[in-house]
Write a structure and sequence with these properties.
5-stranded parallel β-sheet
Amino acid sequence: MTGHTSIPDNQRRIVVAGGGPAAHRFADAMHTRGLEGWHVTVLAEEAHLPYDRVALSKALTQMDHDLTLGDTSMWDHASLDLRTGERVTKINTGEKTVETSAGNSYAYDHLVVATGSDAAQLPFPGSELAHVYRTLEDVWGINKAVAELSERLGRPAKTVTIGGGLLGLEAAAGTVELGAEAAVINGSRWLMNAQLDEGAGQALGRLVTAKGLEVLTGTYPAEVLSDDDGQVTGVLMKDGRTIPADMVIASIGIRPRDELFRAPEGEVSVFELGEKGGVVINDHCATSVPGVWAIGEVANFGGMCLGLVAPANTMAEIVADRLHGGQATFPGFDTATKLKLSGVDVASFGDAFAKTEHALEIVYADPARGVYQKIVTTDDAKTLLGGIFVGDATPYMSLRPLLGRELPAEPGAYLTAAGGGDAPETELPDDAILCSCNNVAAGSIRDAINGCGSCEGNAPVQELGELKTCTRAGTQCGSCVPMLKKLLEGELKKSGIEVSKALCEHFALSRQELFDAIRVLELDSFEEILAKYGTGAGCDICKPTIASILASQNSEYVLGAGRGTLQDTNDRALANMQKDGTYSVVPRIAGGEITPKGLGVIAAVAEKYGLYTKITGGQRIDMFGARLEQLPEIWKELVDAGFESGQAYGKSLRTVKSCVGSTWCRFGVQDSVAMAINLELRYRGLRSPHKLKMGVSGCARECAEARGKDVGVIATDKGWNLYVGGNGGFQPAHAQLLAQDLDDDTLIAYIDRYLMYYIRTADRLQRTARWQEELDGGLQHVQDVVVNDSLGIAADLEAAMARHIDTYQDEWAETLKDPERLRRFRSFVNAPDQKDDAIAFVPERGQIRPATQEEKGSVLISSASIPVRSGLDSAGEGK
């Protein structure tokens, strides 16, 4: 059975065996160079579109994270045919066809094999019980297994990862993020021994241990142990020890998937195979059989097969170039690696082990801090040969493109951890490769910034996102993005284009600069601030921003002293405006805990004013449909009953979600409800650059979904683990572990510092997740400031939070005290008693909802001027 649909006779047929990143890059390279005269069929074994295996660690902890590579519209091209779930099973070199698992046969003029590799199997008993870490299904399976084990066992699952390389550490760290207790076994005396020397490996071991991973090195496992039901119970070591485990993950290397090139037993393959596997290719990626090419991990060049993205991409580009008549050649493997482990900075590149004759090693090591930096140069200390960075890899991005070049400064100047300040400014030569994954030179990036020939109208590129799209730099592993951003800003400055951080057209200062200026000078009015730092009359960007800054610094009534006109619509009304012009009212229900009497009050208020009620995702009750003039009446009834504003309308703390914790739950190990209530009452009313949400879970089962919050607290049998920087929304992010096993007082001190540091330094409307990402140093910087007090401001941050707590005022209660403040709550300024007849509702499921435009012309309308109670009849009136 033939697999091809009709292909014109004048088109040469390319079949690609494999659907991973290398196959995608080849198809993209053909598409970019032009498909006229070609037809490309990609046969992918997996059911997914080609995805980014480099980012598998994200899919391990966030199963809905999209790893799909590139613009999927590429596959709509008439000469590109992607077939998923169809594995190539045989190559017939004589007939120039391939056969697939679906029973199809595809003829080719050129065959590009990109079958990649498999995870190597454990070479001892029990290997069939181990999970591997290679595909989306693999990481999804690990995610599901950790959750199921923790649920069944009633405690955090214990995972053991065999293999302390890049993937092994990422897998183990991912299980920790999922709530497991994790250990890593590595036969060498140190972790990542293929990329790091012993000093660096020992430093990495300290950092990894501090992140909650148990590290076992210098001994090998002998067997995966299990009970009679096949449930893993541990790992037996060769030295006789047994390491307890509920799950084992194998990550001991990769094995090229070269079975297509191997002949049946007793026959000789027409392909040349490497001694350690893989099909041998020449420097233009051709195999020994004409018309058959190999790229990626299955390709053996110089006796090696490597599982790195950069050489795979280069091979794909070379084959596409050759098929279009070019003369590109493969230069060899780029072995630079960077560990993608939250809060652990590791990078290795070039001749990291100083194997070059007469090479010099310039080293700074601080084992106590887990910091190790090494630069390898020629014997004259001028030409860069390689380097290793652990604990502080900030010089990596400046040095990596200079590999093989003369350094612009003394090597020791790049050992930033030694206390010599930042690495020297580096002007990259045009031919220096900035993005090794996609082989993008600094000159190509400069061309794009200054007027890219491939962009419409030869327009210069001035935005980072646009630059990444245009050049492909930074779109794979992402480690070069800081350098890319630096190059962009530098080129814009050279062109006389100011890289503006202005808040808006009226303020040249950034939000952070404005915050500091207002705090230092103790300014307390918009007019004062505008006169000193701004121009014009202000706008809907700077006004609410400054109102928020003033509120977070002074904790004064947000509508007082003329600040009411600065606020957004919701803040002016102290309620959320809905689509029909009515408002919703959300009283605070700290930690989700409410008495039956409190529930009765909310029910009575909703009944009296005919409001629609719904339980929110933050464990509160929202009442919808209140007119502006009704808000003070509703607030009064709630305030008199002991409720206060839940500030659902503000850029401030919204809720602290909690499970029932150890008070009721048989799995709880700490009182999560008490902690959640404590946190919510402590941080209520705290104005910030964006809304804040928290969660407190009483055990590793994570019922409060704390790691989806800006601040997440998860109980352990020793105290609390603190996670920061999570959020839902359009760009969801998992919170990252900041500190673990904290007592109550330390936990609260760290949260005080974290929130105040965020409020002082984040941009306008910047969520905590994005703020952490864009900080120089990311989570490690946050940890240094919050936990280690590296800036010496911990006491100041805690004092600022204490001032907020001492001066907190409930905004509803403060409004009710002043008749003048109540005047703003009228539907019509000149007719205070007139109701807004345009507001109308229709009955639905025993409650109300806003009427549509069509329904407003119908008699089945309940006017907002009449309270709507339950038991609506067919005319929408109360029975």
